[in-house]
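Repro:
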Amino acid sequence: MDSHEEIIFSMIQKLSLKEIKNSNVIDVAAPIISFGDFSKSKVATLGLNPSDKEFFSSSGDELYGVNRRFHTLRSLCLDDWKNVNEDMLKDIKNTCLNYFRLNPYDRWFKPLDYIVSGSGFSYYDEFFSACHLDIFPYATHIKWGDVPEKEKSNLISIGSEFLSEIINNSEIEVIILNGKSVVLNFEKISGYQLESTEISSWRLPRKKNDVKGISYTGNIDKIGNIKLHRNIKLLGFNHNIQSSFGVTNNVKKSIRSWIEMELTENECERYKFI
């Protein structure tokens, strides 16, 4: 069992916790360690948790055959996760690491890929230059925003402990936080407050009160009490690229340019220490 499989096994063991069993977590679905190969990626985008659409169609039917994205108890011919073996763990890992080669949920990931690709990084790059991670690696039956607050808090504390472990088993140097909820939850689990700056070109017009555009920046070398193997640059924006109403192409283009500028500066900072 390699280090990736060990992390996945630990994630699966958590599915037996009462806090998860009594929650909205889809417990027949395998946890998702990453979307794409995090061990080869320099840049990672960060979200809250996987969509149920990674496992089920819009009508609620489990995806199968060429449409399948990730494993479930059914696809592994299991009736209980306690019977998972090393071959199954390897299969779960491979569906995660090769996600963008197989059947990615492009409706969700293409907009995010546009944001990061201005810098030459992409989920779809054959060299896996970017991947996606979630604070909570388990899909839920309902949207994360509809999960009761107390339940969210419990789930985040359970799932987030894996984030530092994943980063420490990767080459990731930059994490891009997609939306204010991701920023707030990351600050909560990391104990680190990002620096915020209003950017006028990201403002979303409304009839009453416009929605401000906010950028977030920071650098961390630990998450909570867990030390990271390298310093990680953090970049974020308050608009959820896929979900925020009225995020225009011009706003997306401006966010893309800002990410490009910040990542170029990050490269320059690296050369100072060579």
